[in-house]
Amino acid sequence: MKAVRLHAYHQQPVVEEVPEPTISGPLDVIVKIGGAGVCRTDLHILEGQWAEAMAPDLPYILGHENAGWVHEIGSAVTNVKVGDTVILHPTPTCGLCRACRGGQDMHCTTSTFPGLGVDGGMAELLLTSARACVLLDPATRPQDVAALADAGITAYHAVRKALPLLYPGTTCVLIGAGGLGHIGIQCLAALTATNIVVVDRNAEALKLAEQLGAHHTVVADGGQVAAVQELTDGQGADVVLDFVAEQGAEQDGFAMTRSGGSYYVIGYGGQLSVPTLDIISTERNIVGNIVGTYNELAELMVLAQTGKVTLHTSTFPLDAAVDALAELDAGNVRGRAILVP
Amino acid sequence: MKAVRLHAYHQQPVVEEVPEPTISGPLDVIVKIGGAGVCRTDLHILEGQWAEAMAPDLPYILGHENAGWVHEIGSAVTNVKVGDTVILHPTPTCGLCRACRGGQDMHCTTSTFPGLGVDGGMAELLLTSARACVLLDPATRPQDVAALADAGITAYHAVRKALPLLYPGTTCVLIGAGGLGHIGIQCLAALTATNIVVVDRNAEALKLAEQLGAHHTVVADGGQVAAVQELTDGQGADVVLDFVAEQGAEQDGFAMTRSGGSYYVIGYGGQLSVPTLDIISTERNIVGNIVGTYNELAELMVLAQTGKVTLHTSTFPLDAAVDALAELDAGNVRGRAILVP
Amino acid sequence: MKAVRLHAYHQQPVVEEVPEPTISGPLDVIVKIGGAGVCRTDLHILEGQWAEAMAPDLPYILGHENAGWVHEIGSAVTNVKVGDTVILHPTPTCGLCRACRGGQDMHCTTSTFPGLGVDGGMAELLLTSARACVLLDPATRPQDVAALADAGITAYHAVRKALPLLYPGTTCVLIGAGGLGHIGIQCLAALTATNIVVVDRNAEALKLAEQLGAHHTVVADGGQVAAVQELTDGQGADVVLDFVAEQGAEQDGFAMTRSGGSYYVIGYGGQLSVPTLDIISTERNIVGNIVGTYNELAELMVLAQTGKVTLHTSTFPLDAAVDALAELDAGNVRGRAILVP
Amino acid sequence: MKAVRLHAYHQQPVVEEVPEPTISGPLDVIVKIGGAGVCRTDLHILEGQWAEAMAPDLPYILGHENAGWVHEIGSAVTNVKVGDTVILHPTPTCGLCRACRGGQDMHCTTSTFPGLGVDGGMAELLLTSARACVLLDPATRPQDVAALADAGITAYHAVRKALPLLYPGTTCVLIGAGGLGHIGIQCLAALTATNIVVVDRNAEALKLAEQLGAHHTVVADGGQVAAVQELTDGQGADVVLDFVAEQGAEQDGFAMTRSGGSYYVIGYGGQLSVPTLDIISTERNIVGNIVGTYNELAELMVLAQTGKVTLHTSTFPLDAAVDALAELDAGNVRGRAILVP
After folding, report:
1. Is the ipTM of this complex over 0.90?
2. What CATH number labels D2-150+291-340?
3. Exposed, middle or buried: residue A262 (CB in 10 Å: 0-12, 13-18, 19+)?
4. CA of C268 vs chain D CAs: smallest distance (Å)
C-alpha cells in the first residue's frame, strides 16, 4: 500500500509503497483510512522535537488523526465489524491498568501513539485496536471528521474539564483561535452560557471566532492582558484556556486569570515562570491537559453529528502529503489539512 | 489595654498601652484574647515583605492567629454571646459577595486580615466580626488551639481539597514538617488511608512526623526527588503538598508529582519555572492554596476536640512578645509559640 | 399600603389597607414591589395544605415571588442602595449557620419564607433582608422577571445539579412543561447538549416546549413510559426531571430512569413507592430539590438578561388578585400571572 | 473436578464431579479457587428469588465471591500470569461499552455474574476473565480475603460514594452490622472522621461494631429512629447507609436522614414508600448502590493488606457446602462462611 514515511529528521517524508499491516492480536483492527489530519505536530516531528521523548525507530508512517472504515478485525473484537465507519482515539490503550479501568485513557501505562513513533494513518491502511474505535453514523464522511481525532478531542477534553467552573456570569478567555481553538470555541458555545473572550494575533481568526460563538475578541498586539482585565472589571477571567502556551502566551494566560481561577495549559513550547507567592496569595490553579478519554471522543462525535461542532478542512490526496505539510508550514492552509488516500 | 504594635519596619514591635477597641457595627464582636499565635509571617511583616501588598497605616497591632472569649457583641450578632469560647477565622468577610455566598471565604472581595494591616490579636482585646467566630466547647483553652486559626486552617484546607485524589493505594508527599506541615500530617492520617511520605531537612522534624502518622520520611539532603521516585516505583506521588515552596522545594515538588497528579503550593517565597510541555505531556496540575473557609475551620476544630489533631505549643506572656519573635527567628521554638495575655 | 391578605383558609384573600413595614434590623431592606408572581402554591395555601407545616399566624400577606426596587435599607446594608432594581431570593437567610456558610441557602436553619407564613410581596412594599436581594440591571422591569424568584430558581437549581450527568449523548426527560418546566427546558437548552424529551398531558404545552428547545415531545396519555423507552433504545433516560411528581408521574418518572441514572423530584403531591431491590439492582438515584441558592438566582438572572430564559406572563393589578387566583385555578392563565401594584 | 451445583430451586445444591473449564477466548483466565464465600444471596438463589431476573439454565455452579491462584490464561492476557494470587471482581465486564470505558463496571451492558446464572467459584477451578483479576501480594491467603470480592466491594463502594458528604462534624448512621455492614464500619473508620452510629437488632453485632470503630450503637428495638434523632440534636444523620433495606429498615433509614442528607440503599427486600413532598421539602436524596468498580476492589485490597479492614471467617471444606448453607440459614455462622476446596 501507499504510505507517507519519515526516514530521517530534517528531511521531507517520503510517499512510497510499504507492506500492508496484518492482524496479529485478538483485539487488533485494521482501518481503511478515509481521512488523516495534517497537524503542526507533524512539522515538529520532522524537526526532531519528539525524537528524544518518543525515541522511535525510523522509518515509520506519520499521521495521528485518523478516521475511516473497518477493514479487518481480530478474533476477540466485538464492538465494530468490517465496513463500519469509525474515528480513532489517538492512543490505543491496554484496558487493564488502573488508569484504563478508571476511564483515564490519557494515562494508560502502556498505550502507543500511532503516527508518533509507530506507524500512523497517512496510508491506505492503519493497524489499531478495538479500544481505539469510536463507531460513527455510516453517513459520516471520515475526511470531514478526521481532525476531531486529535485536535478535536484535545480541545473538548479541556473544555469539559472546565465546565463546572463556567456557570452563567463567568468569563472564559480562550487564547489561540487556530486548529484546536476554533473547536474549543464551539464546544464552549454548545455546553455553557459563559462569556467567551477570544485572544489571537490574527484578525481573520478572530472574525471566525465571532462567527463560532465568541462574545468578545481581543487582538494579541501587546495589550491583551489589559484588554481582558478591562472586559472583566479588573478581576481577570474565571478560566483561561491557552491553546498557544508559548512565546509569552503562557505568562499572559496566567496573568489573565482571576483570584480563585484556573489557567488551562493546552498548547506547549513556552516556559511558565511564576512566584509561588502569586500562586498562593490568589489561590490560582494551573491545569495540564493532554488528548482526552475515549468517552470524550464519543461525546464530541455527538456534537459533530448534530452540527454543533463543525470543521473547516482542505483536502489533499495522499500523494500530495509533502505539499500539504509545506502549505501548513507556510500558513496557507485554511482550516485543517486532511489527506484523503 | 496592652498590645504589641508595629511602628516601623526593620524594628522590633513595641508592647504598649493602647485604647480598647469599641463596637461600632451591628455584627462587630470584641474578643478577649486567650492565645495569639506567633508565626513566621510575623517575622516577614517586620522585614517589610508585606508592606507593598497590604500597604497598612503604621502603627498597628500584630497577631493573626487568635482564640479567646467573647467580650462584647454588636446589636445584630446572634451566633455567639458574651462569655462564649471562640476561635477566629483569620479574615472577617462581608457575607454578601458571590464568594461569600458560595462559602469561599478566601475570595471575599472586601475582607480584612487582622494582624496583617489592621489591628490583630497580640493584645488583651480584639475587634472582629460575628462572621469570624467559630464557637468552641467551653472546656477548650484558647491558648491550646489558637495556632489552628491560621496555620491549622491553611493545612486543613489544602488536605481537604486533595482528599478526592487520595484513595487507598495512592502516595501523598508532604514537604516541610514544620508549623503547618505537622498539622497537615495529622489531617492526612485522620481523613485518608494514603501512603504518607514526609520530606524535611530536619531529622527531628521527621521523627515527629513519624509519630504523627508518616509512613515514610525522606531527609531533604539533595536526594529527595530520587528518594520519592524510588518509594513510588519511579512514578512519583499522586499528590504533593508543599509547605515550603521556596529555596528549590517548589521545583522538587513539581518533579515529585506523577503523571496526572497534582502539586499543591502552600508555602511561598520561591519561583516555579516549568516548560509548558512538561505540564501538558504529563497532564499535571499546580494548585494554589490560601487559608481556608469558615466551615473548614469549624471542621478542623472537630478534629482538634476529638484529639485527632494536636499542637505542640510554647507559651509566652504578652510582655515577652519580642522575645518570642526572637526565639522563633533563632529556631529555638519547639512547636508553635503562643502569646497569652 | 394596599396588600393581599389571607384571613382564613378556604376563603378568598382580601385586598385591604395595612400598615407599611418598617426597618428594625441593620440588614433589613424594604422593597417597593414591581411584580409579584401568582403561583399554584398560593392556591394550595388557601386550601390549607401548608397550614400544618408552616403554622402561621393569620392574617398575613401572600406573595412569595417578588421583584421591585429598593425603598429603604437598614444601617448595615452595603450590597444595595435605595432605588436599585432587585429580584428577591425567596428565603431570607441568617448567613451564619453551617448551611449559609457553605452557600446552601435552602438549608439555612433559621430562614423565613415571606408569602408562606410571614408577610409576602402581594403588596406595595415588602420587608426582606439584604441577603435576599439580587441586584438587576436598572433597565429590567421587575414584572418581567418576578416569576424567576421562585419558579425560576427552582427549575434552574434542579437543572444545575443535573449538569454533570448531561454530557453529549445523554437523554434528559422533563415531565411537566408548565410554569416551572418551561423554564427548565430553556435552562437545559442553554447549558447542555443533551437530548431533551418533554412529557406533558397538554398538547399546547408540548408545542411551546418544542419552541423552547425540546428535541422530542411525548403526550402523557398512558403510553409515556413506553414512549421514553422507545426513544432511548429501551434503556431509559440518564436524567428525569419531574416537575409534576403527583398523580402517577412520580412512578412514571422513576420507571423512565435508566440503570445508573437519576430521577429528580421537583413537583410534589404524590407518593413514590419502589422496591429497594429496584433501587439497588439498577443503582438508580432519587434526588430531592427545593428552591435554590442565592448564587443560582444570580446566575439565572444572567440567563434572563441575555435572553436565554424568557417568561410568558399575564399581568393583573393588585386589586385583581382574587381574579388572578381564580383564573389560575380555572386554567385560564397563559404563562405566569403577575400582580403589578 | 469437584463443584457445588444447583440442579433445581427449593432443593439443596449437589457436590459432584463436573468437567474442568477450558480457555476459549484470548482474555479468559482459569483460577484455582482458594476460597469461595457463602452468602445470604446463595440462600435466596436456592429459594428461587433470582430465577426470574437471571433466568439461568440449570444446573450451574454456585459461588460469586472468589479468590485463588491463576491456573491458566488466554493468549491476550497480560495483567496476570500463572501462579499469581488474585481476588476476582464479581462481574467480568466487556471493557468496550460506555460504562466500562468510564470505569463504571457495575453498568457494563454485557457483563456476566459467575455464581448467579453462570458457573461460579464453589469448585476447584473457575473460568473468568483477565478483566476480573485483581493481583494480590503472594503472601495473601485467598480464603482470608475471598469475602471481600462481593460483600467487601459492595460495602466499600457505598462508603466511597458517600465520602464527600462525611467531613468532620457529620454523623453517619449504618444500619445492619452483619457481613457487609461490619466491613462498612471499618471503611468508615479508615477513611473518615465522621461520627459513626451503628443500628442493629443484635446486641453482639453492636459489640463487634464498637470494636471496629462505631462511636455510638443503637439497638433496633422500635426506638431506633428516635434514638438517632436524639444523637443528632433532632436533625437526623447526614448520611444513612442501609445494609438491610427490608422489614421496615428502609422507612427508618429515610426517616433518620437529615435535611439535605442522603439515604444509601445497599440491602434489599423491602418497599420504600415516601410522599414526594417529604423528598422535596427537605431536599433529601435516595442513592442506589450495587457491587462496585474494579478499581474500588483494588483499593479495598490495599486496606485489607495494611490491616485496616479485616474479616471474621469460618472455613468449610467444599464437600461441606450444604452444611455451610444450612449453618448460615440457621444463623450459626460467626463472620463469613468460606468454602476452601
Report:
1. yes
2. 3.90.180.10
3. buried
4. 5
